[in-house]
Specification:
The chain is of the alpha+beta class. Strands 1, 2, 3, 4, 5, 6 and 7 form a seven-stranded mixed beta sheet that branches. The N and C termini lie far apart (63 Å).
């Protein structure tokens, strides 16, 4: 009987150890609708500011020292990585002469406490002309003012683009 209890205890401990491997903290996989909507709204706010070339709103969408990292894919060439500060990004958007429209769809949102990520395919137009498509990976932090973008990494390509 003593051996049976030891065996059961050992198997139970192993089961707990296996179940804990790679597991999320309790509740981490259940993103509230309010948080999900707020994270999506924070990224959409950036896209709206880009469309209207509102450089003040663009800067306000980000945390101080946030960065944008683009990975441009061109058929037959190695990917090009470009890192840009929010100030440089806002200035480039402010200089645009056409409406800039970025549309995302099917965003996936993860939230753990005061950090969040959003992953979504997107397409981008300059005026009425298609420019490129890709995927956005935005990382956000919850601040006293709400969700702010700490970094965005995105791909850009013109090949194989689809829209919703």
């Amino acid at each position: 009987m003593k051996r049976l209890l030891l065996l059961c205890g050992a198997l139970g401990a192993m089961g707990c150890a296996v179940a804990g491997t790679g597991a999320r903290p309790a509740g981490a996989d259940a993103v509230s609708a309010a948080d999900r909507n707020a994270v999506i709204a924070a990224v959409q706010l950036l896209f709206d500011a880009m469309r209207t070339r509102d450089t003040v709103a663009i800067r306000a969408a980000f945390t101080p020292n946030a960065q944008l990292v683009s990975i441009r894919s061109t058929p037959g060439a190695p990917p090009r990585v470009n890192v840009v500060s929010v100030s440089a990004f806002a200035a480039s958007i402010g200089r645009a002469t056409e409406e800039l429209v970025e549309r995302m769809w099917d965003p996936r949102v993860e939230v753990a406490g005061d950090i969040a990520s959003l992953w979504a395919p997107y397409d981008f137009r300059r005026g009425s002309s298609f420019s490129h498509c890709g995927h956005d990976a935005a990382h956000l932090v919850r601040t006293a003012e709400g969700w702010k973008i700490a970094a965005i990494t995105y791909t850009t390509t013109t090949a194989g683009c689809t829209s919703p």
